[in-house]
Amino acid sequence: MDEDPMTNHKIKAKGPAIGDKQDFILIFDKATGNARVQYLMVNPETKSSVFPKKNVVTFSKIQKLVEYRATVMDNELYIVGGKDWESGQYSSSVLKYNPDSNTWSTLQRMKTARCRFSIDVINSHLYVTGGETVKNKVTSSAECYDPTLDEWKEFKSLPRPRMDHASCTVNKKLYVSGGRSSRSHQCSDVFW
Predict the structure, then answer these.
(1) 169-189 residue pLDDT tens
(2) How far apart (Å, rounded) are the C-alpha atoms in residues 61 and 178?
(3) What letters, b where the CB count within 10 A reaches 16 and e where it falls short, cover 31-49?
(4) Which of 26, 152, 158, 24 is nearest to 80 (CA)?
(5) Among 17-26, 60-69, 86-95, where is mean pLDDT lowest?
């Protein structure tokens, strides 16, 4: 039996002996504005999940935050942007969680507060594209985070405003597809 560092609950996990390191994927479900974040822990080495049911952990750092984006870079979890569930205020915050030390760090804020954007990693840099900003405006702006300088820089904007879109990286290139150009428009089939 291991102990979950977030909840201090004993957990039973299949896999290597205790003390061996093993990679896991945490799938977050943060659709409601409460402090309890649902997650499903999946072992990418096996076909079955490590935990057959959802478990709950409280991350007080993201309490009341919704529509943020989470990504992993260099074995650390980044929670970026989002929106306050109660006030509706857009966030430009950037938090980093180190699972080895069980610590959070507050990093330099994005230049534009946003939610409903996409985030990707290329060459140990974070790339944020589009999203919804103040007054429900959909933006085409894009930013890049350099962790060595703890600094955000704007880079070439998307061809048109986009939110709720998908993105990914292949061979150090960023691909953006779908999404909506405004809150009232239908989903798009664009691919950039």
Answers:
(1) 999 999 999 888 877 777 788
(2) 31
(3) eeeeeebebbbebeeeeee
(4) 152
(5) 17-26
Strand order in the sheet with 142-146: 118-122, 125-129, 142-146, 151-155
Residues 85-133: pLDDT tens digits? 889 999 999 999 888 888 889 999 999 999 999 999 999 999 999 999 9
Cα distance between residue 192 and residue 157, in whole Å: 11
Question: What pTM did the predictor assign?
Answer: 0.72
Beta strands (DSSP E) in 30-163 are: 36-42, 55-58, 65-66, 69-73, 76-80, 83-84, 94-98, 103-106, 118-122, 125-129, 132-133, 137-138, 142-146, 151-155
Q: What is the CA radius of gyration of the chain?
A: 18
Instruction: State how far the Cα of 124 lies from the Cα of 33, in Å rounded to an integer.
Output: 31
**What pLDDT, on the 0 to 100 scale, is given for residue 14?**
43
Q: Which CATH architecture has domain 62-192?
A: 6 Propeller (2.120)
How many Å apart are CA 186 and CA 180, to the nearest integer?
6
| Domain limits, the chain | 1-58, 62-192
